[in-house]
Amino acid sequence: MSPAHGFRGRHVVSAEDFSKDELLHLLDTAAFFEHDVGPRLAGKILATLFFEPSTRTRLSFESAMHRLGGSVIGFADEKATSRTKGESLADTIRMVEGYCDAIVIRHPMEGAARLAAETARVPVINGGDGSNQHPTQTFLDLYTIRKATGRLDGLRVGFFGDLRYSRTVHSLAKALLHFDVAMSFIGPPMLRLPQELRETLGARGRLGREVEGLDDARPLDVLYVTRIQKERFPDPADYERMKNAYRLDRAAAERFGPDLKILHPLPRVTEVATDVDDLPGALYFEQARNGVTVRKALLSLVLADADASGGGLA
Amino acid sequence: MPSPNDFRLQDGTVIDHLPVGTAARALAILGLPREGPVTVGMNVPSTRYGHKDIIRVEGLELRKSETDRLALLGTHVTVAIVKGGRIASKQRLEIPERLVGVLRCQNPTCITNHERVHTVFDRTASTPLQLRCAYCERASAEPYTFVSGS
Q1: Positions of chain B with pLDDT under 70
Q2: What is the pLDDT of residue B39?
Q3: pLDDT tens digits for range A272-301
Q4: Nearest CA to CA, how far is A87 from chain B (Å)?
Q5: What is the CATH number of the domain that holds A255?
Q6: Which ipTM was obtained for this model?
Q7: Do B96 and B120 form a contact (C-beta atoms < 8 A)?
Q8: Which terminus of chain B, N or C, has fewer Cβ atoms within 10 Å?
Q9: Which residue among A35, A79, A84, A85 is the active-site one?
């Protein structure tokens, strides 16, 4: 069975649900979708149910669907829905599935996407469920790394910032277990990786270095930076101290050499100085752009079984 | 004075090798006493484990949802079915690979704490026991909170 056949009609709840072959097939399809592939999803309707605010995820899904000739319905604010009247999530999903061919859901509660997938008869794509999973972010991170470096094996990837609470770090680190990647983790002790993930990586011999200073992590091919979130610190003084200590400026970036690729899931606050932006390896805005390409590929695979050779609608 | 170990059931269930201090929790899980007589031994000598709690219930047959819950009280808990004054069967309780509708998720922002849905936990390790919510994917640790009324 080709990996493509594993996508059609499939729910996309967690990146961990996908095999290495399936991930590579998605990335290959996305590379093909860099070109104009025409209105493959004409007549299809995507419902975007955003129970909490989102900028990049919602807009990139909508852009992807429009670029493929499909239509989008949905809401960007829970206040505009019957949820405010007490409707259950399951009932909302049962209602919406009658209006569309696929659903993208973002929800503040962990597990909401899994529940929606169990309820819906159309494919459900998780656009982020609380602090749990955000699989399409992981897909576009992998895509950006491979596009920039030409490979996923043989890389040295460093994660910098909030390693404890960042779901993008956790998900990408687990996805990189499929590949021969040496991982380093750079951050303050109070924001080190959760024990469960340390054990998962350690059991595979892939925990790598855990260091506090950026310079201690050299050399690296890829540096994945995340925002240190103010709300994680009970004492505002601790936050201010961390915020200033965990910051990538141009001089620190240049010490890694000209080939370093810098990724960030955005939004950025102060953890990457703006003078880093014009370094050739600063890829975070391209990373956001890649989100459209990867989501085009995913929507086409889930809704129409598109493949990297340009095959398409059944 | 006879010890609880001397009590003889005619037709019922013996829940044995409960860790010391868990008998009250087991009674609460099973909603005991119901109709028949119940004897409870706490901190009684055990040749195998030093001390244990033990519950004997006349006229009770346990459902799977009940044995799944009792299994979470300790790793050595056994259930013996007594018929006609003799032990008809005896089994050591094992925690199933998937627990459905048994525990509440400890993550306050898990969807299962906000929607009417059966909780699902997967056993990710047995020694020590590790359970993971199938929805929010968080690990749960003792003390567990049981779903009420199921």
Answers
A1: 1-7, 149-150
A2: 93
A3: 999 999 999 999 999 999 999 999 999 999
A4: 10
A5: 3.40.50.1370
A6: 0.86
A7: no
A8: N
A9: A85
